[in-house]
Design goal:
three-stranded antiparallel beta sheet, alpha+beta, about 140 residues, rod-shaped, about 40% helix, about 40% strand, Immunoglobulin-like, 2 domains
């Protein structure tokens, strides 16, 4: 009888060790799964925020302004976003309509045929679009 009791203890200990190992592995698996989902969610939010910021960051590459010419102002703007949009231009405190659109992912020329107000000299100009706006300095000559 003494021999049977010694044999039961090692079997029970092995079963208990296996059960504890499975429990620890399960806990670790659930923890890693929740951590992975949290990291993926944060990465997605960061990427979305960066793309939104990029779509709103227009870049003025060149501007010309001659108040005595048929075309008063031409601004070449790079739109890094994917949205094509119309624009309006504020020069010298007056809103001017712009002909043309800003194509997403490309440089586009925006032409203003009639500038209103006194714009001769250096002006702060603001190009407004649905995807964002950009402020730049533009010098107009007579």
């Amino acid at each position: 009888m003494v021999m049977n009791k010694k044999g039961i203890t090692p079997i029970i200990s092995v079963i208990l060790l296996l059960m504890m190992s499975v429990a620890v592995a399960g806990i670790a698996w659930f923890w890693m799964q929740s951590m992975t989902q949290r990291v993926m969610s944060q990465t997605e939010q960061g990427t979305t925020q960066q793309l939104t910021t990029m779509q709103g960051s227009l870049l003025v590459q060149a501007s010309t302004c001659n108040t005595s010419a048929a075309t008063d102002a031409t601004i070449v703007v790079y739109n890094p976003g994917t949205t094509t949009t119309a624009s309006s231009l504020v020069v010298g405190g007056s809103v001017n309509s712009a002909s043309g659109t800003l194509t997403g992912g490309a440089a586009s020329a925006v032409t203003v045929t009639t500038l209103s107000g006194s714009v001769v000299g250096t002006n702060t100009a603001i190009l407004n679009t649905a995807v964002g706006s950009v402020t730049f300095s533009m010098t107009c000559v007579a």
